[in-house]
Design brief:
heterodimer; A: 366 residues; mainly alpha; Cytochrome-c3 Hydrogenase, chain B; three-stranded antiparallel β-sheet; 15 helices; 47% helix; B: Beta Polymerase, domain 2; five-stranded mixed β-sheet; 27% helix
Chain lengths: 366, 202
């Protein structure tokens, strides 16, 4: 009487809830997901291969195109790796400005995340609210470097230009605005009954399993692992900043939400300290005119809004381009856990879980 | 890439990565001495550059060394940060590929890099059994370099289309594809395409 066979359906690559061109093949038993297969590569542009055929400065703007909602973080990560390879001392002023930019970028990226994640689940208002504040950050970036999405905002050894006069005051004013707006988001979501029903107990993953699966960033911290590159292996000026690393307890979608909401506040705390403490001085260190690191290899990681963003770069010392350029994309490693997270949940939870691990397909596919 | 066009990039001049040995007075971290004692023959060579320790492991000892690094108390490398490869085509005797494992310990907060040298046709044991995170990362290395991971649960291309020919991240991979051949000599290109289609049908 009843047909109990499994149904295979295809979701994406053109689907509004997949945040780009992600394709998921779902095997369903009724409304339950039995298994999922993630198909990626639709946005593959060969950034690693391209970078191996560009000179060291030209690569900065290619890194913009990976995580395009947090381009400044990718820039900082790349420049710091080359600085480590060439042993360039970066002036403190540049380090502080980098910290401010990275944290502004984290807020912008989390704004986009909270908006789209809530919209996937059905809360339209948060999307409009969050994009309103993201706009303010884009304005600050526009004033700093002239661009609103792909910033190319870093140079090897320091900054492309000094911060505009009065910019730091605008950043502080933004922090004050943002404080109140965060409460607005939380009023809409944190104790909202529908939100709780849709996120609590969905996609539970415990700390040891999350670590073994290579989850990173807020997705790993939501499972209770206090792993934050900013604390563990400080870069830029994070060793001089005071901030806490929020961790979840259950490891479900709701915990990952709470962790990111607290990260908003911690980012504001860092921005306030860093902006108030920007020291006077030069903005670029001693950089040779021709950037050509001696032969050697290094790996350097930073904490992007999505997680551990690492660069592994090999220089052969003979040419003006890297011999090997490898990016450790946090979204790629997080997306790998999606089939594990959706197994056993309802089909409607798939979009909640895709939103919960916060992926950007530009970075997954490179 | 049997039919590499004439505009293939020049052969890479570099013959291998620079792996400076640690200075004589450098303090060897506890996890390396522990690995040396725990799995004999697992440390073929040691290198220290810019504060990063690299351990070169013979391919035959990889799984044993990886399991030891994950499980022993003073190593506790429970997190596989990254897995990638580099291609050094002129290096024939040792094998052209370096497969590199970036390990991190969430408990001790230390890092180490493992490196395995293998030849083009030589299979390498998959570490998916040790760190499940290696699944997609090994698929990407297979996709981009053609490194053959034995024992991988799902060895398919991941970023490139399934029917793609060749391995794009190899240094001898042509930088320009048949597009140029099509413009210069459409008949040759047509023949090439027909031959490919026929071989696909067979």
């Amino acid at each position: 009487m009843f047909d109990t066979s499994e149904l295979v359906i295809n979701m994406g690559p053109q689907h509004p809830s997949t945040h780009g061109v992600l394709r998921v093949v779902l095997r369903l038993d009724g409304e339950k997901v039995v298994d999922a297969e993630v198909v990626i590569g639709y946005l593959h542009r060969g950034i690693e291969k391209l970078s191996e055929n560009r000179n060291w400065t030209q690569i900065i703007l290619l890194t913009d195109r990976m995580d395009y909602v947090a381009a400044a973080t990718s820039n900082v990560g790349y420049c710091e790796t080359v600085e480590k390879l060439m042993q360039i001392e970066v002036p403190r002023r540049a380090k502080y400005v980098r910290t401010v930019l990275c944290e502004l970028q984290r807020i912008a990226s989390h704004c986009l995340w909270v908006g789209t994640h809530a919209m996937d689940i059905g809360a339209m208002t948060v999307f409009l609210y969050a994009f309103r504040e993201r706009e303010l950050i884009l304005d600050l970036f526009e004033e700093f470097c002239g661009a609103r999405l792909t910033y190319n905002s870093m140079r090897i050894g320091g900054l492309p230009q000094d911060i505009p006069p009065g910019w730091d005051k605008k950043v502080l004013a933004f922090c004050d605005i943002m404080d109140g707006k965060l409460d607005e988001y939380e009023t809409l979501l944190t104790h909202n009954r529908i939100w709780l029903e849709r996120t609590k107990g969905i996609g539970v993953i415990k700390g040891p399993e999350a670590t073994a699966l290579g989850l990173c960033g807020p997705a790993l911290r939501g499972s209770g692992v206090a792993r934050d590159v900013r604390k563990d292996e400080p870069y830029a000026a994070y060793d001089e900043m005071e901030f806490d690393v929020p961790v979840g307890m259950v490891g479900d979608t709701y915990d990952r939400y709470l962790v990111r909401m607290e990260e908003f506040r911690q980012s504001l705390r860092i921005i306030r300290q860093a902006t108030a403490g920007i020291p006077e001085g030069p903005i670029v260190g001693k950089v040779p005119r021709l950037i050509k690191p001696v032969a050697g290899e290094t790996y350097h990681a930073i904490e992007s809004p999505k997680g551990e963003l690492g660069y592994f770069i090999v220089s052969d010392g003979k040419s003006t381009n890297p011999y090997r350029f490898r990016v450790r994309p946090p979204s790629f490693c997080n997306l790998q856990a999606l089939p594990r997270l959706v197994r056993g949940h309802l089909i409607a939870d798939v979009v909640a879980l895709i939103g919960s691990i916060d992926i950007v397909l530009g970075e997954v596919d490179r | 890439m049997a039919d590499a066009p004439e505009h293939a990039p020049k052969a890479a001049v570099a013959t291998g990565p620079v792996e400076p040995p640690p200075p004589v007075d450098a303090a060897i971290p506890a996890f390396i001495t522990s690995l040396q004692n725990g799995v004999s023959g697992s440390v073929a060579q040691l290198s220290l550059y810019l504060g990063d320790w690299t351990v070169i492991v013979p391919a035959s000892h990889l799984i044993e060394a990886a399991t030891y690094l994950r499980d022993s108390a003073d190593c506790a490398f429970d997190y596989l940060s990254d897995l990638t490869a580099t291609d050094w085509p002129p290096r024939v005797a040792e094998g052209r590929f370096d497969v590199i494992y970036m390990l991190y310990s969430t408990e001790h907060r230390h890092r180490v890099r493992l490196k395995v040298k293998i030849a083009e046709d030589q299979p390498l044991a998959s570490v998916t059994g040790v760190w499940p995170a290696a699944n997609w990362l090994e698929r990407e290395v297979f996709d981009m370099f053609g490194v053959n991971f034995s024992g991988h649960p799902d060895r398919r291309r991941i970023l490139m289309p399934e029917d793609w020919q060749g391995y794009p991240q190899r240094k001898d991979y042509p930088l320009e594809g048949p597009g140029e051949l099509l413009m210069e000599n459409p008949l040759d290109w047509l023949k090439l395409r027909q031959a490919r289609e026929e071989s696909d049908i067979e």
